TrEMBL record, chains A, B:
SUPFAM superfamilies the record matches: NAD(P)-binding Rossmann-fold domains
Protein name in the entry: dTDP-6-deoxy-L-talose 4-dehydrogenase (NAD+)
Pfam families xrefs: Epimerase
Species name: Marinoscillum furvescens DSM 4134
InterPro entries to which the protein is assigned, alphabetical: Epimerase_deHydtase, Lipid_A_modif_metabolic_enz, NAD(P)-bd_dom_sf
Domain NAD-dependent epimerase/dehydratase: 4-222
Lineage of producing organism: Bacteria, Pseudomonadati, Bacteroidota, Cytophagia, Cytophagales
Length: 264, 264
């Protein structure tokens, strides 16, 4: 099928485009900066969906499915702009894309929609976000669920995704940088929080399956297995056979995350 | 205490200002058009909070409590602008008012936050709005509940308010107009939906009590008694001793309301 991917050059976007091509789909890759690879089934368009022409939106809407991966302000989950800028902008773009013909949307939600709920979390767990980021995504989902012209909404709540192309400010790239720079100590939180770390390839596969699905579905995208942050970090240190020591407890726990939670 | 009322010249606003004065409070009445009455404890300011100066916002924020009653687009609960315009505008205004000193806010929610839940609804019932209007108010409440600088949030979900000064397009004013014009037939829905009709004076009293309350509270503002729409209409016809007949079933039921629900 023909799939438009918004945010195609991002971390999850690049993996998703490759997985779509692998599964034999035709891809319209939408991003501000374009892609650095090509394929006979890939069309790449430099478009900022928040600031583009109606023609661009018509072009994006000519597809069997849309995977929407863009979301600004990701560096600060507590920024009010998630609610006052990104949410209205995203609704306005989606309204037009739906009006121009898209009836099948995959959107990436977040485990932060659940707020401070602990343990194995099923997709039916009532959402209770405590951050503007989690609240904005949850509000978008509640809006789209009742949209009269959207036929299939697939909402995937992503847990702690990691892998190639991840933001340099994330935990694993920071650790790898420190190991590569032969630093002796890596500063982190106490590290006994249990998280659900999921590889970006797994996320991409799940998103592609969701795009192919002809039904409405809310789901979690995680590994389903809890791991402490410390265990996750130690696995990488062992894998690289590095002598780096951990300065556990240097940073506080984030106040917007529960101590232990993972996807069910 | 000193109370700022935003939306002071509106239907609920006028009654709330009078009730505040009756209870001995000092009132800063904020509205676009001003008030048509005066009082020694009443200061009236013509301000559009969505388009005003920082000085105006400072003036509003110099108060012990804020009762916020403005909300545009009320004629269409399904308008997406509740989410894309009113919600972000309202958050931006509230952010500034909180920054300038307000820590005690009464905000009027809506029974539409509950969506299609039937029966006696307690304030603890999980919200499930199906309209952009209900969703925008519910999202604002969830945002304010986690606001680090807001001390007291009082959230009152108003049911079917009626009374003096109500919009001419509402049920009771329409009926009164028809009776006054000596029309023979009044067109309405089947009328067997059970609603919670509450007098605006009761709503005003409840809002003033909430302003005085020094705690965070989510509550319903209704009569607590179900009444069918037909019974409600017939009471007014009887009161006016009018010979008008009802054309029941002329209009469909609204699709965003449950068949029977009332405040608990």
């Amino acid at each position: 099928m023909k799939v438009s991917v918004i945010g195609a050059s991002g971390f999850i976007g690049q993996h998703t485009v490759r997985e779509l091509l692998l599964q034999g789909h035709h891809v319209k890759a939408i991003s501000r900066n374009g892609l650095n690879f090509s394929d006979k089934n890939l069309e790449s368009f430099k478009i900022d969906v928040y600031d583009c022409s109606e023609e661009d939106l018509h072009l994006i809407a000519q597809a069997d499915a849309l995977i929407f991966l863009t979301w600004p302000h990701l560096s600060n989950f507590k920024a009010v702009e998630h609610l006052t800028e990104t949410l209205p902008q995203t609704i306005n773009v989606l309204e037009k894309l739906i009006r121009y013909g898209i009836d099948n949307i995959v959107f990436t939600g977040t485990c932060l929609e659940y707020g401070l709920v602990e343990g194995a979390i099923s997709p039916n767990t009532p959402t209770a976000p405590t951050t503007p980021y989690g609240l904005a995504k949850d509000t978008l989902r509640r809006y789209l669920e009742h949209h009269p012209s959207l036929r299939y909404l697939k909402w995937g709540r992503i847990f702690y995704v990691y892998g190639k192309g991840q933001s340099k400010t994330s935990l694993l790239p920071q650790l790898r940088r420190a190991i590569h720079a032969k630093e002796t100590v890596f500063r982190m939180s106490k590290g006994d929080q249990q998280r659900d770390f999921v590889e970006v390839e797994t996320v991409a596969k799940r998103l592609v399956s969701l795009a192919e699905l002809k039904t409405t579905k809310i789901t979690n995208i995680g590994s389903g297995k809890p791991l402490t942050v410390k265990e996750f970090v130690e696995m990488e240190i062992k894998r690289q056979n590095s002598p780096i020591k951990l300065d556990l407890g240097f940073y506080d726990y984030p106040d917007y995350e529960p101590m232990r939670f993972w996807a069910k």
